[in-house]
Amino acid sequence: MKILVIGGGGREHALVWKLSQSKNVHTIFCIPGNGGISEMATCVDMNANDTNGLIAFSKKEKIELVIVGPENPLASGIVDGFEKEGIPIFGPRQKGALIETSKVFTKELLDKYGIPTAPFKIFSDYDKAEKYLKGLKPPYVVKADGLCAGKGAYVITDQAEGETVLKDLLVNLIHGDAGKNVIIEDFLPGVEASYLAFTDGKSILPMLASQDHKALSDDDKGPNTGGMGAYTPIPFIGKDMEEAINQNIMLKTIQALRSEGVVYKGVLYDGLMLSGGTPYTLEFNARLGDPETQPILFKMESDIVPIILACVEGKLNTIEHIKWKEDVSICVVIASKGYPDKPEKGKVIRGLGDLKNRKDVMVFHAGTKKVGNDFYTSGGRVLGVTATGKTYEDAIEKVYDAVSCIEFEGMQYRKDIGAKALKYSIERSA
Ligand code: AMP
Ligand code: GLY
After folding, report:
1. Does pLDDT of 150 surpass 90?
2. Of the candidates 113, 156, 115, 149, which has an alpha carbon nearest to the alpha carbon of residue 133?
3. Distance between CA atoms of 79 and 89, rounded to whole angstroms?
4. Average pLDDT for the chain
5. Which secondary-structure segment (H or E) carries 239?
């Protein structure tokens, strides 16, 4: 098969790496790709949001399957465009992507179909929102409706801050139209997890629960980022909890979407809060997570191509389960100096060659560029160093040993990815 992957981050490198091992695949293109991907696929320097250009490219190259990584092309209807041309594509249509692009759509859907989420109210009028807010006691959460590159949710611990955020969103329009509607919801204490599943709009095929680390610095300090690391499995999510998430959230949501006339195909990503033993949905994404995809796919033993094709063809019930390595899998993101606000670029990266043949380690590239035989930084999140081990301790040691081999000017990374899993394990066995 000839496959085109859209995107150029660590998630797409993991996808291309996994696809390159499939006996069903002989050629992979990636638009735009990155330095690491260019060693496994033909990268083409085109705009990932130019649907018409991508369709023309796919026709010329006789692409047999397109896989969409990031949310922006999904939000602008890339799947609808390709489907009209009869080119198989993996991902939800624009209406399905609303589950990520509009928190108002999602909260109303969850509410209508009785799917657990934090109690909430929706506002577009500043005066009404401010009046409501004055009657609340922090903590609570204020969220912009639309896509804000991970910066649209504010956990409010101080009333004055709540009023400022509200004004910024509804009056100063700091997120533009994305903040024209806001949600004010109850704060849910608990632990967060990412739960991803393949779906053909009728059934689901769950992947593994994982945990992202959104804050820039250790102990969840500092500004929020796209994600500084992830690991799987999570010690506190066992079979019973998985079944509760599958039945009470994932399947119910797919069915709710169908009742609303949306056949949702692709990956459904549930960002959930486990609060008092119950999983509540904080948000959905309409795609694979980044960096969650890196440790998840590194653990996947099954061929991913038949799974993706079964989703596209509406036959996911023909795939019984996914085979996984038993191991713990951890990804540590290395970012540039200045990330997330103003990342430096153009720094030479050293040490990658030494890690190429290391067993149980894979370095997925994100913001990198290959010039001659050298790799240079070209973005905020640069690398996702990923390792598997028999235990959390083993995987942590392997991944940080690999990280210590890499060097570029100003590099920053968290030193505590996986540490929470150790803590939860100790708590569980106590
Ligand atoms: P979201 O974009 O909705 O996933 O929110 C971003 C982050 O804000 C989440 O990853 C949580 O850490 C936090 N958050 C969002 N909603 C809530 C809530 N209702 N209770 C507690 N924390 C929340
Ligand atoms: N890891 C968070 C995301 O993919 O949105």
Report:
1. no
2. 156
3. 6
4. 96
5. helix 239-245
Ligand in closest contact with the CA of 288: 2
Give the model's pLDDT for residue 425.
Answer: 77
Peptide bond into 279 cis (omega under 30): no
Ligand with an atom nearest the CA of residue 227: 2
pLDDT tens, position by position, 306-318: 999 999 999 999 9
Q: What is the DSSP letter of 292?
A: T
Report pLDDT digits (tens) over 62-96. Answer: 999 999 999 999 999 999 999 999 999 999 999 99
The 10 Å Cβ neighbour count of residue 333 is 31
From CA 402, how far away is CA 419, in angstroms rounded? 17
Residue 220 Cβ < 6 Å to ligand 1: no
State how far the Cα of 340 lies from the Cα of 224, in Å rounded to an integer: 8
| Ligand 2 atom nearest to CA at 71 | 5
Q: Which residues of 79-97 are buried (b: 16+ CB within 10 A; e: fewer)?
A: bbbbeeeebbbbbbbbbbb
* 302 and 21 Cβ atoms separated by less than 8 Å: no
Rounded Cα distance, 227 and 233, in Å: 17
Choose among 230, 235, 167, 265: nearest CA to 364: 230
Backbone φ, ψ for residue 138 (5° rounding): -60, 155
Q: How far is the CA of 249 from the centre of ligand 2 (A)?
A: 18
Give me the count of residues in the chain: 430
The dihedral of CA 349, 414, 12, 79: what is its sign? negative
Of the CA atoms within 13 Å of residue 305, those in its CB half-sphere come to 20
Q: Give the chain's domains with CATH numbers.
A: 2-91 (3.40.50.20), 125-180 (3.30.1490.20), 191-429 (3.30.470.20)
Task: State both tokens at 161.
Answer: 């801050």
How far is Cα 386 from Cα 289, in angstroms, rounded to an integer?
15
Rounded average pLDDT over 303-307: 98
Q: Are 118 and 280 in contact (CB under 8 A)?
A: yes
Which residue's CA is the closest to the ligand 1 atom numbered 13?
155
- Ligand 2 binding pocket (C-beta < 6 A) is 212, 227, 285, 289-290, 292
Distance between CA atoms of residues 7 and 3, nearest Å? 13
Which segments within 150-259 are labelled E, that is strand?
Answer: 153-156, 182-186, 191-199, 204-206, 211-212, 215-217, 221-224, 229-232
For the Cβ of 188 lying below 6 angstroms from any atom of ligand 1, the answer is yes
- Quote the tokens at residue 263: 């056949």
